[in-house]
Amino acid sequence: MDAPDLASQPPLAGIRVLDLTRVVMGPLATQILADQGADVIMVEAKEGDTNRVMGPGPHSQLSGISLNLLRNKRSVVLDLKSPESRRTLEELVRQCDVVVSTMRPHVLTRLGLDYTTVRALREDVIFCQAQGFAVGSPRANEPAYDDIIQAASGVSDVVERVTGAPGLIPTIFADKVCGIVMAQAITAALVQRARTGQGRHVEVPMNQAISAFMLVEHGAGAISDPPVNMLGRPAAGYARVLSPDRRPHPTSDGWVHILPYRPEHYASLFREAGLAGAADDPRYADQRATIANSDSLYRDVRSITPMKTTEAWLEYCREAGIPATNVASIQDLVDELPLLEHPHAGPYRIIPTMAQFHGLPGTAPTPAPLIGEHTAAVLDELGALNTEVP
Hints:
Helix content is 38%, strand content 12%. It has helices at 25-35, 64-69, 83-95, 105-111, 115-121, 146-152, 155-163, 173-196, 206-218, 263-272, 287-292, 294-304, 310-320, 330-335, 375-381, and strands spanning 16-20, 39-44, 73-77, 98-101, 126-131, 200-205, 249-250, 255-258, 324-325, 339-342, 346-349. The chain has a six-stranded parallel sheet, with helices on both faces. A three-stranded antiparallel sheet has the order 7-8-9, with helices on one face. It has a two-stranded antiparallel ribbon with strand order 10-11. α1 packs across α8 (173-196). The longest helix is centred in the middle third of the chain and has 24 residues, at 173-196. It is globular. Residues 384-390 have low confidence and may be disordered.
């Protein structure tokens, strides 16, 4: 038999993932892995995962969220407290390269799904666990969802600096960032296993991951010891991003977002608007000055954008090399998506993958499964098909 052409297969083809996650964070991580070719077997309770009923959808088991979040996966229903299901789960662990969980540490221990127990079933397993707070920390077993982590990791603080009151970004920001981190960490562990033959315990504490994410720019001058501030501002926080005027601006017929990122961008933009002194304004003498004076510069940009239409500004910015865009609505983004046919839910729009692997044959995704749709097939693969499905 000819060896498979690995170059023509998705990068994670041949990797089997046991998905013990729920809601969005973990399922997004395993969606990424599934989109990249992994065989993802998700274990659900008989009522199915929460994401199946998060918002409206065309089928009682498939919300608009789950239609894409669960694609390219197989669903198995198991009662993790049942001895029979427990035996099935142990066999699944033995057959899987990766085990992913978003259960809190004490729940994993109680169910016998902690790393030590799982590793005893498969020594080279990649075991990824993600929860709100780090294992061993005082808050390790506290429940935590996106809103809690946004408040705990500095997100609400930077919202307060812009709006005057603590708030949350209107997307499940922490869940999705941590899902991406999980997928990357799992892939890194798989690369290391390919080199060493050894498994790995991977942990993604949400609060740690999002705090690190926020501090990339907002650590700013506070990272130095002693702290260094700029023009009397607090040392922590990146001034340009914290400007209340960092937002789309009105035009004569709508909205545009223009980002004069370099000093010459400001000079060009203000010269186009006929402002006096555009060539030698000290507020954008250099990059450091543009950051320090973001508030007043953004206000001045806002004052000139009503002079032209959105398209006129976009055309000018393209010619001048200034970053700019129209303001797209969520509905605009949805309308651009291609349609696919789901066997149970009918037509739906497919969200693109986050990364493109050029040179691979394009294939339509496997549709999101109904609850337990693959239980019998997976048990059959394990050589454990029973007349009564556990």
